[in-house]
Amino acid sequence: MSSHHPALVILTGAGISAESGLPTFRGAGGLWEGHRVEDVATPEAFARDPELVLRFYDARRQALARVAPNPAHFALARLEAAWQGPFLLITQNVDDLHERAGSRKLLHMHGELVRVRCVRCGLNERLEGPLAGRACPRCGARPGLRPDVVWFGEIPYSLDEIEAALARCALFVAIGTSGEVYPAAGFVDEARAHGAHTIELNLEPSRISARFAEHRFGPASRIVPAWVEELLARG
Ligand code: APR
Question: Does pLDDT of 2 surpass 90?
Answer without folding.
Answer: no
